[in-house]
Amino acid sequence: MTALLTLSVLTLTACGDSSTEETGDGPPEIAALSTLGAGEGQVDVVSWAGYVEDGSTDKTVDWVTGFERETGCQVANKVAATSDEMVTLMKTGDYDVVSASGDASLRLIYGGDVAPVNTDLVPHYKDVFDGLKAKPWNSVGGKPYGIPHGRGANVLMYRTDVVKPAPTSWGAVFDPASPHQGKITAYDSPISIADAALYLMKTKPDLNIKNPYALDDKQFQAAVDLLKQQNETIGEYWSDYTKEVQAFKAGNSVLGTSWQVIVNLAQADKAPVAAVLPTEGATGWSDTWMVAAKAKHPNCAYQWMNHIVSPEANAAVAEWFGEAPANKLACAKTTDKNHCATFHAEDEAYFDQVWFWTTPLARCVDGRTDVQCKDYAAWTQAWTTIKG
User: Fold this and answer.
1) CB-side neighbour CA atoms (13 Å) of 252
2) Of 351, 350, 287, 356, which Cα lies nearest the Cα of 322?
3) Quick check: 235 and 252 in contact, CB under 8 A?
4) In this structure, what are the phi and psi dihedrals at residue 378, rounded to the nearest 5 degrees?
């Protein structure tokens, strides 16, 4: 996993796209593939760095070559640095499949850029954790739009030699009188507004927030105000996780949002850090493999999805990238036998406390119909003002 530090392009920053808001009562009617035919000889992929490894980064890390040999589908992969870039690339019609995060998936669905997925054509889907199936970020109206890849929580990381007592609440990063002013960090993305919304959901019940991704005008303004207040204590925002490792190691950051893989890497570098899932719970991410609505190579795309969620490949990518695998059989295939325990892969009680990134829509994703919620374009505009 440490070798992945070389992949500094992995930023996962989500930028706004005001042109993909949903219209009408639902996504465009697009048919899922009905039967699996012969592979077309190629599959064009858009992915996060570290998701499609063919041995060129590290000769021991390769789950592409075997797939190509077995299926005859040659993989052409385009690494995207942001969710916004993924959305833009999929709109070109040049790609067959994408590893979309939850802050992009509904934009792709409502934009008509991806098709529903026929899970009967993906045999390994049956072994995916139930906690990842038919979720708001990968399905609409009970119709699946992709195959889950993996998941992780946005945890609270802190320097154990500086932050005492150990924090248990997100209040530690929202305290305007924090003794750690200037050394608090937060994830640099509009989706981080959900972090503030989650905290308010638990601490300000009068706001009546039921879902941190479904915010009406009053709820949204409360979250924005909280983040503007927090901005006064922020030393730096992070998007490249290798830089956050270095910031905590150097002591430039001592408290803030992180991922388990960052915690692991920082600890491996002897930084005195620990992490906690706060009492309020946390936001998190779950990536989904989605097929283009007009895929030129749909059969190879389906074969790729089945391969990447197979126990062997899913275990390999989960270890390399640093996440909980989606396939429950993958845990027996990891080289590090403690991997799934470290990333809580089989701990549904842990993930029940995690609100996975879901694209905010004007039609409230919490089911409300009497108000309009702030869509992702509004979140993007607000994030600019929050950072100043």
Assistant:
1) 11
2) 287
3) yes
4) -65, -40
245: nearest Cα among 259, 234, 232, 227? 259
Would you give the end-to-end CA distance of the chain in angstroms?
35
CA distance 171 to 163: 13
Which of the two residues, 5 and 331, has the higher pLDDT score? 331
pLDDT in tens, 207-254: 999 999 999 999 999 999 999 999 999 999 998 888 999 999 999 999
CB 135 within 8 A of CB 147: no
- Which tokens hold the place of 358? 């879901």
In this prediction the pTM is 0.87
- Nearest-angstrom CA–CA distance, 295 and 243: 36
Residue ranges of domains in the chain, CATH in brackets? 2-152+285-356 (3.40.190.10), 154-283+375-387 (3.40.190.10)
Angle between helices 298-308 and 311-321 (to 10 degrees): 70
DSSP letter string, 91-144: HTT--SEEEE-HHHHHHHHHTT-EE---GGG-GGGGGB-GGGSS-TTTEETTEE
Render pLDDT for 283-311 as a digit per residue (tens, 0 to 9).
999 999 999 999 999 999 999 999 999 99
